[in-house]
Amino acid sequence: MRFQSQDKVVSFETDFAGGKIDQLVELGGDDFEILIRPEKEPINDSAWYAFRVHSTNPRHINVRLRYEGGSHRYEPKISHNRIEWQSAEHLIVARHPGGQEVTLRLPVNNQVLWVAGQELVGNKDIAGWVDTLAQFPFVESSLAGRSVQDRPIHRLAIGNPDSKEVIYALSRQHPPEVTGTIGMMHFIEALCSDTELAKRYRAEFLTVGIPIANPDGVARGYWRSNANGVDLNRDWLTFQEPETRSIRDDLVRLRGEQEKRLWLFLDFHSTYNEVFYTVPKQTKLFPEGFTAEWLKSLNGRMGDSTMLRDDGHNAHRSTSKAWVARELGIHAVTYEFGDETDRERIRKIAIGSAEEMMKILLARKANLSPTVSR
Description:
By secondary structure, the protein is an alpha+beta fold. It contains eight helices and 19 strands. The strands form three sheets. The chain has an eight-stranded mixed beta sheet, with helices on both faces. β9 and β10 (101-108) form a beta hairpin. The radius of gyration is 22 Å and the shape is elongated. The termini are far apart.
């Protein structure tokens, strides 16, 4: 979408990957209204928006975000180059009590101002990140499959390719959940670091990572779904969609044809605070007691209750976590970062959790009975 004010001074655009508004109306003067709708209803309330704006004359404009089918969840982030972002909650000058409307007062000039619910971390950004990591001799990049609209689903394999011990991680089944992807990127980078711990871990374990499981939804600025309107994290029973089938087949192939032993499955997401969503604590999984030990270790390291645990969340729904625990018998965690958590704190938590995971897994493997089957 491209929109220009009647005086041809102010211009809005959404014709970029992840750009999303549904209607724009000039109300008069310096006032504009943007309508934001979901791709389908009913839907999880993760209302996404992203646009660019600039003006031939420096001025302040009032932009009212009006939501249908949802409400304001993501506080605005702004950037002048699409790379460096900052929170812009201070630009909100009015809020509807129910969250159906929020008004921003934006300073605009001839320099493009990017405005979005979260930082734009899209398919091209991730492809570049994957290419950078693939320069390491211990990282291999490939494709797990392709999406409904034929976009690549990038796959990273980190560590010893001959190792039989595997950790599997993915992110971005839900397009707006950018902090989950940011957390996963820091987590993976910690596994690729030059520390002695990471080197020992890579020698013993192979980590497989899928940084964007829903590339179509990310590209289209969707709230929740893939190009077929399906919530991928509710498709882990029927596997109707090519994205979930590709990841399932990869997991099954690792376990079957390649005879590898899966230790842990992580699915990175975003919600309102940091939390581990797990399967019920009484469920018998390999390796025994891992999630509880990991969480205790991480919180001890951070000096607070950084990560909460909820072992009843979506326990019986068709989520990745539930399917992996049930079918593969290993610990599976939906790893959630807060929408508005400080990005430096996300980095520290992600690195800390990666390092504590590596320590525990190395110790567990060293003490593992040879009779434990794959």
